[in-house]
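seq as requested:
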Amino acid sequence: MYLVGHAIVAFLIAYAISKKFKIAGVSFALVMLLASLPDIDILFQSIGVTTHKTYTHSLILSLMLVPPVIFAITKWRKASTGAAFIYSLAYIQHIVIGDIVIGATNVLSPFGELLVGTGIGYGTVAHQVLEFLLLAFAAGIVVSKSFGRQGETTLFRYNITDKVAYVLFIVALIISFVYLLYGVKVLPRVFIETDLELALFVMLHLSAIALVSFLVLVSRQHKMSQARQTLPNTRD
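struct tokens:
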């Protein structure tokens, strides 16, 4: 999947779990950022340190290392066990869902080789339509909740963690978009072969950036509204 798809799948899973089990205090900005984190190896690849889909995409290493680290940090930050589980799942689903549904991934890396995939090609129309549907579903949730009762969901948290996570995630989205678009323009079309696929790619990423920006604005507005409601009434 693109970064868009990884983040949106994590968003939807986190929303479903937090709503079903009434888990409060979940930062959806952090969820989307953690879902994007395995692809940081693309930066390492560009400077010759490692290759894409290796250590950060290792299902075995991720299961061994990611949950303990996240649970330790959330305990230190006095977050709930449920939130820690969601954050861990956000990272791991990148490998288990995104990179298996679209393309294929080596689930035994770095200790062996067993490629698992569904056969949906990376960058194809089918791939991009799937990500559009996921994005539309997430947009429906955000828009419906933005006009709902304040405080009914933690979707619009906006503390310092959320602010930093939103900034980093939007930057990651833009970098990913520009990096892939540059590759399409200057290299043979390895993963985007037609103009339709290219058009869908551009629209998908611009729509994702717009949705996350809207989520930031709504979250900021909700926080300001809550702050006004807590101010003492000085009028007689």
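Residues 195-230 form the longest helix (36 residues).
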